[in-house]
Write a structure and sequence with these properties.
globular, binds zinc ion, Competence protein ComFB, ComFB
Length: about 90
């Protein structure tokens, strides 16, 4: 495999951000690529990194991180990032 180093938390957070922005709860928030990236970056700054180097390690880490208990605090940080970016969007620069 040609993958190098992957942050599994980034993959997980990215999919959660996508799903949340599609949900009715966040229909009033901007979903442009700039805001989506800012939400993800802001979330990742407050989430622990989880780097892996193999596909097997990636799957194992994903399963460990993606439990109900972990999703509660991960979701909480992503939700607060969605609100910060929604209040101070940078997409008009
Ligand atoms: Zn935007």
């Amino acid at each position: 495999m040609s993958r190098e180093i992957v942050n599994v938390m980034e993959e997980l957070a990215s999919s959660i951000v996508t799903v949340m922005l599609m949900s009715p709860d966040y229909q009033t928030f901007c979903k442009c690529e700039k805001c989506r990236r800012d939400i993800l970056a802001l979330s990742l700054n407050t989430l622990p990194t989880h780097y892996v180097t193999t596909e097997g390690g990636r799957q194992q880490a994903y399963e460990q991180l993606n439990t109900n208990d972990n999703r509660k605090w991960i979701n909480k940080r992503i939700i607060s990032a969605i609100h910060v970016v929604g209040r101070y969007p940078k997409h008009n620069e």
